[in-house]
Specification:
By secondary structure, this protein is α/β, with parallel strands linked by helices. It is built from 17 helices and 20 strands. The strands form 5 sheets. It has a 9-stranded mixed β-sheet, sandwiched between helices. A 4-stranded antiparallel β-sheet has the order 1-17-16-15. The chain has a 3-stranded antiparallel β-sheet with strand order 18-20-19. Bound molecules: iron/sulfur cluster. Iron/sulfur cluster (SF4) binds next to loops.
């Protein structure tokens, strides 16, 4: 039974409906309308900026990246990101007297730490000038510890307002690092995080991955213990998804070097056990946080919120996103920018928001989104709240009973609610899938979407621009 469930691929829910069910846009009418409506609503929002270049390809990666070491490429995209921000703030000024209430900003990618510092500075200044600073609580930066990174450079980001770092660690085992084309040794990261850096940043997150080629239970146990030794305040434990049909670079390692689905479940349980024994609290399926990290506090107060970047302290439920491929949410409207770097730059040069696909949620979508988000955020399903809706169909009821039988869910008769068990949290996306009205649609990676040129084409000719 467990074997069959493990084989059944389901989407990774961060938004509902998931991106494979969004449509290609004809024009920007909807985007402009929802942006205006959102701005006038005076709501709080998160902001995401996507820097799409990386100097080197990591073989496990699913992010939208274009591999380039050319400074001129970094420069071109940085200037366009700045222009997109200016376009956005111009539009906002037209619609409100005050300033946008951005609560948190996330610089992601790609590798935003290779963005030339003068542009990073310009972007931070633009944000500070144009958002209401009374609401801005966090600026987070994804850090690649390689590429000439050092403690001084990290401390320099604090001068631009960055107060949270998210470091891509992935694994410390030499064979695994070689197999995934990403070598960042323990000492490199240990040296980066000196006392000054640790004192300066409120929160330091590590990303690490289970299910990588050449990984074994033993090697992962050693890596997990080393991670605990370095004591990041937050950890994101990611499940490697092998999709060489979409991500051609995943053909670079041997499939036979990958752990099986059953081994991966054991790996997850082992990592989880070590982290829990070392005073990390579990936050949803793949986040762990020490007691003094804000995520732990907000989890206990039931204020957490899952956005496309992971768990957030629930300061905002919406997200304005900037940069190629970036995904945004404005109330009941989702949008995504074009993947193609050339098209992105062309749109921005013509002062057009570079949106390529969108989804306006129906009443039914909104109801189902609430159930799925409650599952992700609080790991529970309240049957009483669903009793008057059409959602509790016979199929859904039976699936939940099945999950109860195999101990993914636990029913509380008194509260008439299911809570997700420790084992079930590994299968949280399978449980969410029960409520997905689009689940009969082909399971697609969002990268199968095409936006004019093939979205998977990494050989974009930036030199032509
Ligand atoms: S894992 Fe990070 S650094 Fe590596 S290719 Fe992907 S985005 Fe780039």
């Amino acid at each position: 039974m467990l074997k069959d469930i493990l084989k059944n691929k389901v989407p990774f829910y961060t938004l509902y409906p998931t991106q494979s069910n969004w449509g290609k846009i004809e024009d920007n009418k909807n985007f402009n309308r929802y942006l205006e409506k959102f701005v006038k609503s005076n709501s709080q929002t998160s902001m995401y900026l996507h820097f799409p270049f990386c100097p080197k390809q990591c073989y496990f990666c699913h992010c939208y990246t274009v591999i380039s070491k050319k400074e001129e490429h970094y420069e071109k995209i940085s200037l366009s990101i700045i222009k997109e921000l200016e376009l956005l703030f111009k539009k906002i000024k037209k619609n409100i007297d005050g300033k946008l209430k951005v609560t948190d900003v996330h610089f992601g990618g790609g590798t935003p730490t290779v963005m030339p510092l003068k542009y990073f500075k310009k972007i931070s200044e633009l944000i500070y000038e144009n958002v209401d600073k009374n609401y801005l609580k966090e600026i987070a930066l994804e850090v690649d510890p390689r590429n000439n990174m050092n403690s001084e450079k990290l401390l320099g980001y604090a001068d631009f307002g960055v107060n949270r770092l998210s470091i891509g660690v992935q694994d410390f085992d030499t064979d695994v690092q070689k197999a995934i084309n990403r070598v960042n040794e323990y000492d490199l990261i240990n040296n980066l995080l000196n006392k000054e850096v640790r004192d300066k940043f409120e929160s330091i997150n590590f990303d690490f991955i289970f299910g990588l080629p050449k990984q074994s239970l033993k090697s992962l146990e050693i890596t997990t213990n080393k991670i605990v030794e370095l004591k990041p305040s937050r950890i994101t434990l990611l499940n490697m998804d092998h999709r060489p049909d979409i991500y051609k670079h995943q053909k670079a390692y041997k499939e036979t070097d990958l752990p099986s689905d059953e081994e991966k479940l054991k790996m997850y349980n082992q990592c989880s056990k070590i982290l829990l024994e070392n005073k990390y609290n579990k936050i949803g399926v793949n986040h762990f946080a020490l007691g003094d990290d804000i995520l732990s506090k907000y989890k206990s107060e039931k204020k957490l919120y899952r956005n496309p970047n992971g768990f957030s302290p629930g300061w905002a439920y919406d997200m304005i996103s900037i940069g190629p491929s970036a995904t945004g949410k404005l109330g009941d409207y989702y949008y995504q920018n074009v993947y193609s770097i050339d098209k992105y730059i062309e749109n921005i040069d013509n002062e057009i928001f570079p949106v390529s696909r969108e989804k306006t949620l129906s009443g039914e979508d909104i109801k189902r989104r609430k159930i799925i988000m409650d599952l992700l955020n609080f790991e529970e399903i309240n049957l009483e709240q669903l009793s008057n809706s059409n959602i509790l169909s016979e199929n859904v009821v039976n699936s939940l009973k099945e999950f109860d039988k195999i101990k993914f869910l636990k029913f509380n008769e008194k509260l008439k609610s299911y809570s997700v068990s420790e084992l079930g949290s590994y299968f949280i996306n399978h449980i969410c899938n029960v409520f997905d009205e689009y689940k009969e649609n082909k399971y697609q990676s969002q990268r199968e979407f095409k936006d004019g040129i093939r979205s998977l084409d990494r050989n974009i000719n930036l030199n032509k621009i």
